[in-house]
């Protein structure tokens, strides 16, 4: 499994290790500090993009239609390369993949800064840049997920995934957009893109310093490269389909994403308005508390030991965390909506920390990139469908029944997954905690 950090240059003194609280223990390893810094910079760059691209579209005289095309192009690039990114992560240097992905994002954002300054930027260029960013992320995330177990001891993987769970909302939803807004208001939208290029270049530099242990499969593949890639994908699917817990959990995840993403992203602002709970500021506050709940849940889970019944706890936390969504279609009190979203964010993010650790602990290192990308692909595919279906569903039945389905369906499917896939037996047969 994962290589111990003692093999890769951890020189921090033992007394300092002992003083670190559990959520911060991965930082005692210099290699992880570099990798976590690269992740944080990349997430901040993505958060900056979400704000910068809106104001740049406005600055060049384009409108909502062009912005929609740009957003769609980024999603297409990501989905199109997610599976291939997993195959490449299992074949090539994961460190090198991350460096190249971050360098590509830096060059793409930098090109926008240059052409915008010269008044030559067009919506077409922004669409191409969005595709490049999506493709880069399709390679980056499987490589990052597969590289973490190589630089972090197994006992610290839960904390490392908790750190990632805290960084995502903090940097993508708060710090990144805030930084871009400041650059735009003080100078111009083009300067925000220069900042994006800078943070991705720094992310590439940090990753380039990481020393990567050998974990990938160097077995020679016969036949053409295309046939070889298809063979690797087939092997990844075969491993997934013959591993009960890997069948049960993504099946549950499809349901979770399908019934919750659309209601939260699309219906929630209208529910808040129509029920008299507030307007745009109330919606922004509700989403901020949802993200704050995610940070809190990730922090809390990273401070704990991995549960003995890790599969059951994970699925029940994911499913049970959706129950508070039932009040979103009924309450006219903003504090109730905020409390429900905070609780939902905390429980579902905590479960996500267990899931990331589970993949890194139980999936063979040579297969980890492909399995991570398959999981990523499943989630990505269900989210657009959820947002497409939620509007017609609300028009036909109203928002209250839609939120009720979002609250009840995940827990129902979680209980069925635990029972039908015999996960309680599986987690006992494959313990991830030391016997006392």
Automatic annotation (TrEMBL):
Q: How does it sit in the membrane?
A: Multi-pass membrane protein
| GO MF annotation terms | transmembrane transporter activity
User: Is DNA damage set as a keyword in this record?
Assistant: no
| InterPro entries according to UniProt | MFS_dom, MFS_trans_sf, TM_effector
UniProt main location, coarse: membrane
Region Disordered: start and end of each range?
1-22
For this record, the Gene Ontology CC terms, alphabetical, are: plasma membrane
Compartments (UniProt record)? Cell membrane
- Parts of the chain that traverse the membrane: 32-55, 67-89, 126-144, 182-210, 237-262, 282-303, 310-328, 334-355, 376-397, 403-421
What are the Major facilitator superfamily (MFS) profile domain coordinates in residue numbering? 1-425
Q: Which SUPFAM superfamilies match?
A: MFS general substrate transporter (SSF103473)
Entry protein name: MFS family permease
